[in-house]
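Marked as duplicate of an earlier ticket. Keeping the data here for the record.
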Amino acid sequence: MNLFLFSFLLFPIFLTSVVTSYYARMPHGVCTQRQCNAECRKADYTDGECVRKATAVSIELVCKCYAFYN
């Protein structure tokens, strides 16, 4: 009975995708979608988008890369 309950609880985990992310710095603080996607693919990530990321002293424009795993 415990094995059945354990497998029932783990089953939804296998149906969901795992998403990992990575922040790539853009040269000169300029981020375009085309450049962002190129940087992400160089780092073996699927796709990316330009986002603002707050640091301790400023707000930078960086590329957030995503990788999707099933």
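See parent ticket for discussion. Helices lie at 2-15, 33-42.
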